[in-house]
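Human: I hope this is not a bother. Would you mind checking the protein record under this note? Thank you for your patience.
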Amino acid sequence: MVDEDIPSAMLSGFGFAAQITFGFFDFEAREYKPKSYENLEVTNLTGSLAWKDGKPLPHVHAVAGNSSFAAVGGHLLALEVGRGSMEIHVRTLSDRLERAADASIGANVLQLGPAG
């Protein structure tokens, strides 16, 4: 995002993950509770690329399934592509999106300007 001067972007994708770590946000603890899995097909990945404190900050969620067709998903914390491929589609946006810490929930949230 920095080198290409991209104001912000939307992400989507799918493919094979050798290892994937999802997080479920615990609002009481104000942190993600991680859980990792191996050898899953990512059936849907969606998210945004915004900025926080002058640095790019992705916010991505995904769903992935195993060979028994059981699915898991959540906030994407880490992803390692294994055999096969991972297709990530990036759609750039013309407006710069910013995130800031929201003290009431303990998470970074997208800042929306006034309508109009």
In short: The chain has a mean pLDDT of 92. The CA atoms of residues 40 and 67 lie 8 Å apart. The chain has no helices and six strands.
